[in-house]
Amino acid sequence: MRRTVCGMEIWINPACSKCRSAISLLDAEGADYTVRRYLEDVPTEDEVREVLERLGLEPWDITRTQEAAAKELGLKEWPRDAGARERWIAVLAAHPKLIQRPVITADDGTAVVARTEEAVRDALSRREPPSSTPL
């Protein structure tokens, strides 16, 4: 059984400079997070749906349409409507390299595509405060 995305997790491709920058910033801020190398630990269609829900986006919004696989599949011509949504989700699960990266799922149940420092800081701002221990 696959795990459900929860807490702070970052989906990365280690070869991606934006992913490495996001990890560096998370580390500098002392964030507690889990790394998921999503090209190796490929998300299921259900996990893609969950991340999309957390992002508040549609699958075509997080698709890397300039990738060779996207061009081969003709994704730029695919309809971008409710009727095509499941087809897009299936292609993202089948070709995880097409998923925009990095994606950070935040503790509060939301997520961000963390391609900028501002987006990473946005995810960090959604962390649950540390629990205080009574004296």
TrEMBL record:
Keywords: Oxidoreductase. Pfam families: ArsC. InterPro entries: Arsenate_reductase (IPR006659), Arsenate_reductase-like (IPR006660), Thioredoxin-like_sf (IPR036249). Signal peptide: none annotated. PROSITE patterns: ARSC. Gene3D superfamilies: Glutaredoxin. Belongs to the ArsC family. This is Arsenate reductase. It comes from Streptomyces variabilis. The gene is arsC.
